[in-house]
Amino acid sequence: MSLSATLAHRMTSALSDAGAIAEESTLEQARTLDRFLAGVEKRAFQIAKMAVRDAEDALDIVQDAMLQLARRYGDRPSDQWKPLFYRILQNRIRDCQRRRMVRNKLFGWLPGPAEGEESGDPYEATSDEARGPADRVMIGEAMESLELALRELPARQLQAFLLRNMEGMDVAETAQAMGCTEGSVKTHYSRAVHALRARLGEVW
């Protein structure tokens, strides 16, 4: 998956339309932004997929977050992009989850899927790629257990845990990305770690 490559010309156009910087600086800024997005897209996709449990929805979320960062904050200093991007990403994830809640309420009044239509969770239907030697099986099982445990975390705890561990963001950056205080980040993160330890044992 390479979202950033397909977005390069859009980002350049978005920055140019904003009229925030001169033409040459705009091109250089677009290249810098493209490199930034290329560096975070895979982790962002993993975070989105973990949250919404659907690869296509996660892909849409990440692409939209990238475009929004380019259009609204592309002219900002590059050291501001990381927390801004992840705040946009989390907002898009919440939007997707809200739409699902509304859709599920509406579908609750409708009959089940017609014969031949897909049903069930497409995430759970994904085939297990961890096959082969015993060590790969053990790793696959451990990752599956971790993923199941992460799914059970409340949304804010999951956000704090993924941003701090997967992305390596500090408390201040995580607080900006989540739109909350640093104290709240510490609380959400601590509760997430305790919950995961209780579920998985002392392996962290």
Plain-language structure description:
Helix 3 packs across helix 4 (about 80-105). The two termini are about 30 Å apart. With about 200 residues, the chain is mainly alpha-helical. Residues about 105-130 have low confidence and may be disordered. Helix content is about 75%, strand content about 0%.
Descriptive key words:
Arc Repressor Mutant, subunit A; globular; 8 helices; 2 domains; Rna Polymerase Sigma Factor, Chain: A; mainly alpha; single chain; 204 residues
User: Beta-strand level of the residues, as a percent range?
Assistant: under 5%
- CATH class of the largest domain, named Mainly Alpha
Counting structural domains, the number is 2
Give the fraction of residues assigned to helices. over 70%
Summarize the helix and strand pattern as letters: HHHHHHHH
Radius of gyration based on Cα positions: 19 Å
Q: Architecture of the largest domain, CATH level 2?
A: Orthogonal Bundle
Cα shape: globular
Find the CATH topology of the largest domain: Rna Polymerase Sigma Factor, Chain: A
Count of runs of 4 or more consecutive helical residues: 8
Structural class: mainly alpha
Number of strands: 0
Biggest sheet details: none
Pick out the low-confidence regions.
106-131
The chain-level mean pLDDT equals 76
Distance between the termini: 30 Å
